[in-house]
Amino acid sequence: MSKQFFAELAGPTAPLKSLGIAETENPFLTDSYISALQMLGRECWIVGTRDDRSVTDAAVALLSRGRLSTLLEIPSLPASAATELFWDGIYELCKQLRVTDLVAETYASPSFQLPALKGEVSRTERTEHVVRLDAGLASRLSSNHKRNVKKAKAAELTMRHGADPQESLAQHQRLMAQSLDRRSARGESVIQSAQAIPEHRAFLQASAAELFQALQGDAVVSSVLVLLSRKGAYYESAGTSPQGMAVGASHFLINAICEHLREHDYRSFNLGGASPGSSLARFKAGFGATVVPLSACTCYVGPAWRRKIRTVYTLARQNPAQLRKAMCGDRYTLLVYAIGTDAILKPIPVSEGIRFAGMSDQDLINLPADSQDHEFRERQLKRLRRFGRSYAFAVFDSEAIAHISWLLPADALKLESPRILLLRADEAEITACETLPQFRGRNLYPFAVQQLLRVAREQGIRRVYMKTQKSNLPSQAGILKAGLKAIGTITVLTPPGMPGRSFMFRRLRS
Questions:
Q1: Does residue 326 register a pLDDT over 70?
Q2: What pLDDT does 194 receive?
Q3: What is the pLDDT of residues 69-81, one digit of tens each?
């Protein structure tokens, strides 16, 4: 039977039921979830695929109209999002609704390969942690989690749910703020949305979610808001007080929620996402959760002229200096260095325990968040998305990543915009060299460059280039220390009012 894409505007009552869509384990695909969003004034569409007999899979899509943009957001992509059929239908719907921005999220989605999408602006590789609620639940707890659950029971913690939603929601918000403050103090990147309070209230009013809370006496010390479907649950948000942290309240509460859900014939409890290697990921894994790899994507699907107008409008309000720069043009000069890979160099000394190794795609995805440079991991993932594979190499101090550099062959450099260096097939560039703040001043940058020259030689590359801003004196010092020689400059000129166009003036010696 052939499949077809469908898109239906959700009605005010039981829209899934009216389309013959049975509720699954996905809490982002329920009539109550749609009702909650409609309470908030969101326009909800149901999209998916169907055959001659029935709907094969579906998702909720949310439409928001603004002055200069129209957003279509799909919180939980269905399995059919791996197919061209699904996306051809979504693009046609975007055209029909005059959508400019498309956000494809994968909360509680099955794991699948998300294809390259039209107009991609950003792509995020993420993971979620899913606990299967079967008979082996208790035995899968880590030893640390078992100790904390035991400690909480000794402190006489109890779990409640179904309490007065107004009072319990206020307690939930207070505990969430305390948890976010702790994570921020540890160097994690956290965002607290002002939309969370009305969303949480709507979820509770529409019976799309329930609050579970741990009490020590009369005090609420931990709280979790859980989205619910008929057979599945999703950890939407949580918070724990310092008092609760001291007695293992969060471990106790999630374990108690799992037991409660299992007793009521739920099949799974999705604990949500966490950055690989983070303390939150370790916490969620400790409940015996299965790690589910996923991808999410943001796209611009509107006309180019609208995007330009919106960019000018946004810059005028938020960054007038950058707008003036775009309108007046830009000019900057790069210093260029080069060396043959057969050159004999004086080795750079480094301390004991330093090692150099290549980084696979998965290594980059699993990079932990750094406490002193919160954007370090995201910059590596952005390059991974741009080039489609990893060309990264790292310097490790024991097991800690201290430095990353990228060795880009000529074919990969064709993807750069603007394209500054024009290289032959047997040439490459060392670029995107970053030493984390706590490891600087230890010769790791020139050491990495010399190791990359060896790798380049083994790959058959004859000559390697590097470039840096004229003002970046530390970078220049590291390049020269590694043994490269200055061969000239490249001036990059962006004409006034043409931010997408650049011209190169190359003054290079061979």
A1: no
A2: 45
A3: 899 999 999 999 9
Q: Do domains 129-294 and 320-508 have the same CATH topology?
A: yes
Among the listed residues 365, 443, 341, 456, the one whose alpha carbon sits nearest the alpha carbon of residue 410: 456
Cβ(334)–Cβ(507) under 8 Å?
A: no
CA 285 to chain centre: 18
Q: What is the DSSP string of 84-150?
A: HHHHHHHHHHHHHHT--EEEE-BTTPPP--PPP-TTEEEEEEEEEEEEE-STTTGGGS-HHHHHHHH
N-terminal to C-terminal alpha carbon distance within the chain: 63
Fold entry, domain 4-119+301-308: Aminopeptidase (3.40.630)
Contact of 406 with 391, CB cutoff 8 Å: yes
SS3 of residue 259 by DSSP: helix
0.90 cut: is pTM over it?
Answer: no
The residue behind tokens 């032959």 is 424
- In this structure, are residues 380 and 389 in contact, taking their beta carbons and an 8 Å threshold? no
CA angle 191, 112, 3 (to 5 degrees): 120
Q: pLDDT tens digits for 225-248?
A: 999 999 999 999 999 999 999 999
Largest CA distance in the chain: 78
Q: What is the CATH number of domain 129-294?
A: 3.40.630.30
In 10 A of CB 298, how many CB atoms? Answer: 18
Q: Average pLDDT of the chain?
A: 89
Domain boundaries, the chain: 4-119+301-308, 129-294, 320-508
pLDDT surpasses 60 at 494: yes
Contacts of 239 (CB under 8 A, 6+ apart): 172, 173, 174, 175, 176, 177, 178, 179, 180, 222, 223
CA distance 439 to 52: 62
- Give the model confidence (pLDDT) of 274-318 as tens digits: 887 778 889 999 999 999 999 999 999 988 777 766 665 565 666
CA 212/CA 163 separation, integer angstroms: 9
190/409 Cα distance (integer angstroms): 36
The whole-number average pLDDT for the span 127-145 is: 90
Euclidean distance between CA atoms 312 and 305, whole angstroms: 11
User: Domain 320-508, what fold?
Assistant: Aminopeptidase (3.40.630)
DSSP for 368-389, please give it: PPPSS-TTHHHHHHHHHHHHSS
What is the average per-residue pLDDT within 175-186?
73
What are the DSSP E strand ranges found in 231-368?
232-240, 268-273, 290-300, 330-340, 354-358
In the chain, what are the helix, strand and coil shares in percent, each to the nearest 5? 35, 30, 35
Kindly report, residue by residue over 420-474, the tens digit of the pLDDT.
999 999 999 999 999 999 999 999 999 999 999 999 999 999 999 999 999 999 9
